[in-house]
Design goal:
Length: about 375
């Protein structure tokens, strides 16, 4: 009798996507064996990262679909039907029912988290998704087509997870000691929130290419994301030379946002469908306390009539000379440096920089 071979799925989370390589160090450890040699085992290991990002250190559950495929055939037959895999306190991944390599043909594996992401669809079809309000990271992995190896016990299925969304952070500062900048609201405008995700055909264990990166299509339903909102005077942010990271305010009105990858539009200086970060603020002279902006010369479209604090709005485009669209698995940090505005005189725009680990930083000042 031919011995059944264990299917073992190793899990890691790739923190970058598109066509760049990851700079983090990920060590895939041998799994903790908690069952017999014939059981399917799972293991996961990687470095921990910030915020609400999925990593294999904080990933405690994911779901798997698998499909068998006969030699020479394009038909996929369901093999594992949305099976939930859970990590125990001993770092052993368990699930039920246990599956084994088929005697012939190949197996294609599709994994994802969180479980509710796929919904009633399957990885073989387009998956409708609503990313609003943007607090949830979603990851996916593909491995296959694979065959069991009768000469090797515990045959491994390596599943590297990729992030399906882009991550966006906003930071604000002011470097002019003669000004006091008070910020009451920060909002991202006109970002598409709904679309369809398509799992790639190739394995996400391979070097990133057009065949193994998921694709978004039909992005629609533009909405605004509130990154910060002061409810009362003592919640207004007084900017300093040290950037205020809005993600430090947590998931209420603050926090990082996981956004649907999409083209960034800036054609009309903040009108119509332009996509931008709106900063509602007031600017004062430190020595006299005089309010410099908004003032009598401020255009009506830059005044916020409903503002409790008499603020104006500064508009910073999400699109820059280096950032034309948001790519999945890339962390974009927008550093907004507010020292003046058009009504007061000169407004300065710095050059966006791209940090390591694909944290893309756009600096405005």
């Amino acid at each position: 009798m031919k011995m059944k071979n264990t299917i073992m799925i190793l899990v890691s989370v790739l923190t970058v996507m598109a066509f760049w390589s990851c700079s983090s160090n990920e060590d895939i450890m041998s799994p903790s064996v908690g069952t017999t040699d014939d059981a399917i085992l799972f293991a996961a290991s990687t470095d921990y990262t910030r915020g609400g990002d999925y990593t294999t250190n904080n990933l405690t559950t994911f779901n798997v679909y698998a499909y068998t495929q006969s030699s020479g055939s394009t038909d996929m037959k369901l093999f594992m039907d949305n099976v939930t895999v859970t990590k125990t306190g001993n770092n052993v991944w368990t699930y039920s029912p246990v599956e084994y390599w088929p005697a012939s043909g190949t197996v294609n594996f599709y994994a994802f988290a969180p479980a509710e992401w796929i919904g009633t669809s399957t990885p073989l079809n387009a998956i409708s998704y609503d990313s609003y309000p943007g607090y949830t990271d979603v990851i996916y992995a593909v491995s296959g087509p694979l065959q069991g190896n009768s000469d090797m016990a515990n045959a491994q299925v390596l599943m590297n997870f990729r992030h399906a969304l882009a991550k966006v952070t906003a930071k604000l500062s002011s470097t002019n000691p003669e000004l006091r900048v008070q910020v009451s609201n920060v909002i991202i405008y006109n970002v598409a929130t709904r679309g369809n995700f398509h799992f790639p055909s190739g394995s996400t264990s391979d070097t990133a290419s057009k065949d193994n990166i998921g694709i978004w299509s039909d992005q629609n339903t533009p909405l605004m994301y509130i990154l910060y909102m002061a409810q009362q005077k003592n919640e207004v942010i007084n900017l300093t030379t040290t950037p205020t990271d809005l993600s430090d305010f947590g998931n209420g009105m603050g926090g990082d946002r996981y956004m649907m990858p999409q083209e960034l539009v800036w054609l009309n200086d903040g009108d119509l469908d332009d996509m931008y970060i709106g900063v509602m603020c007031s600017i004062y002279d430190v020595s006299t306390g005089e309010k410099l902006w908004p003032n009598a010369n401020t255009p009506a479209e830059d005044v916020v009539p409903s503002s409790t604090f008499g603020d104006g709005i500064l508009k910073f485009p999400l699109s820059t000379s280096k950032i034309r669209d948001w790519q999945p698995g890339v962390h974009y940090t927008y550093n907004l440096i507010i020292n003046s505005n058009d009504d007061m005189g000169q407004i300065e725009f710095g050059t966006p920089t791209v940090d390591t680990f694909l944290d893309v930083t756009a600096i405005y000042q």
